[in-house]
Write a structure and sequence with these properties.
- This protein has about 425 residues and is of the alpha/beta class.
- It has 18 helices and 14 strands.
- The strands form two sheets. Strands 1, 2, 3, 4, 7, 8, 9, 10, 11, 12, 13 and 14 form a twelve-stranded mixed sheet that branches. Strands 5-6 form a two-stranded antiparallel sheet.
- α2 runs antiparallel to α13, α8 packs across α9 and α8 crosses α17.
- The longest helix is centred in the first third of the chain and has 32 residues.
- The radius of gyration is 27 Å and the shape is globular.
Length: about 425
């Protein structure tokens, strides 16, 4: 009897605590339900993924009612994954896209315009570099970048020295660049390259160099003011392609796809000069014990400086609504803040998208970042409508001259006709 009474007393003592614990559990579940979860997508690039993980922790600490999950995918499969997921609402809420893909994503209904109450056009155009207007369609912005890119010249100091060139003095004109590259290039008796003087990789950044640098340096423009008409089927366009194809056929400084691509060749110390974006700094810096390089602004020609600028931008998918939309807007505000842009530069090598931040003396005069930042001041962002198709017209034009024996004029006229079809097809929609 005493034992039974003892058990009853113990139960009476424990039960209130059990009910209290149960109450706490219910409250915890309720709190959990108040947390809005959103998903962020970007293609896999190790330094970007790692930094974004840190940024998400910072954001969640300041916004405990929001949880952000980052997912990454191989670059080659990225667009396919988006196309299969976003329409069904199974994809991300906030997505990172190359600006040249935006027209296709907007036309496909994958993105929604950014709310002007939070991202007013006037403020965007006052704070950001003008090139971000490439993300504006029908008067509305659909995405904004954390960082932007321009091009610069990388040179291998060891190869310069071996060729009898001053390893601390890069070329400042296009003619000098060709002369230096000729001294660096080496071939065997059969004409196979043992070492390339410079990059000719149109599949990489060189199609931008032809379009936005060389054509302008020869006195032309690639497109009309609203990018609705090709204008490089002109003497400037013919001169630009001839100058570029002469690098292989006349000056013999290299070939496209040498050692598979320019990044591989330069990283291996087998290419004297390459032109690439600031995002490449992270890759090259990992090789600092074996790769000794410098960075300079792109060489000028005919007294003209020109550059190409680009960016990856973050947008909000069209299926994101309600609390997820509110959370996504907050996350996008965070990603486009000065604080995040300042962190992005040293970690990734991409430049702040806001003018006032990027043009600070500490960045503008930096020996590594400075050439890219100074290049932004005279850079153009091609308003791509189908970036892959518009890249291919220049790859094909090069092959028509070098492999098929067409004149630069014939190849450029053909390229212009093909690209105009791409542009017309877009505006016909």
């Amino acid at each position: 009897m005493k034992k039974s009474m003892l058990i009853v007393l113990m139960l009476l003592m424990v039960l209130p605590f059990a009910f209290a614990a149960g109450g706490q559990e219910v409250k915890a579940d309720t709190a959990k339900q108040d947390v809005t979860e959103i998903v962020y997508w970007q293609y896999f690039y190790e330094t970007k993924k790692d930094l974004m993980d840190k940024l998400i922790v910072m954001f969640e600490e300041r916004n405990p009612d929001i949880k952000v999950t980052q997912q990454t995918f191989p670059y080659e499969n990225y667009n396919t994954k988006v196309a299969s997921s976003v329409p069904s609402g199974q994809g991300p809420n906030v997505i990172n896209l190359f600006y040249g893909w935006l027209p296709l994503y907007i036309d496909s209904g994958y993105l929604q315009p950014l709310p002007e109450s939070v991202f007013p056009n006037a403020r965007i155009e006052q704070e950001f570099f003008p090139l971000v207007e490439a993300a504006k369609f029908d008067g509305k912005y659909y995405a904004l970048p954390t960082a932007v890119r321009s091009l610069a010249l990388f040179w291998n100091k060891d190869l310069f020295k071996a060729a009898g060139l001053d390893p601390e003095v890069p070329p400042t004109t296009m003619d000098e660049m060709v002369a230096f590259a000729k001294k660096i290039a080496k071939t065997d008796k059969s004409g196979n390259y043992l070492q390339a003087g410079m990059s000719l990789e149109l599949r990489g950044q060189m199609h931008h160099v032809v379009r936005e640098v060389l054509i302008r340096q020869f006195g032309g423009t690639p497109y009309n003011a609203d990018s609705s008409k090709v204008t490089y089927n002109s003497q400037a366009g013919y001169d630009a392609l001839k100058w570029f194809t002469d690098l292989e056929t006349v000056h013999k400084v290299g070939i496209p796809q040498y050692m598979t691509d320019d990044v591989t060749a330069f990283s291996a110390g087998k290419m004297g000069i390459t032109i690439d974006g600031s995002f490449r700094l992270g890759n090259f810096n990992k090789l600092k014990d074996t790769l000794h390089y410098g960075v300079a602004e792109l060489p000028e020609m005919n007294g003209v400086k020109s550059n190409f600028a680009s960016f990856w931008a973050n947008g909000i998918t069209s299926t994101t609504q309600g609390k997820q939309l509110e959370a996504s807007i907050k996350f996008l505000e965070f990603l486009t803040s000065d604080e995040v842009m300042a962190m992005w530069l040293p970690a990734i090598g991409e430049l702040p998208a806001k003018k006032a931040l990027a043009l600070k003396d500490e960045f503008k005069n930096d020996p590594t970042y400075g050439p890219f930042i100074r290049g932004l001041e005279y850079a153009q962002a091609t308003k791509f409508l189908d970036e892959n198709a518009q890249r291919m017209v220049w790859i094909n034009a090069y092959d028509e001259v070098v492999l098929n024996g067409k004149s630069p004029k014939q190849a450029v006229d053909q390229a212009a006709a093909e690209e105009q079809k791409v542009i017309d097809a877009y505006y016909a929609k």
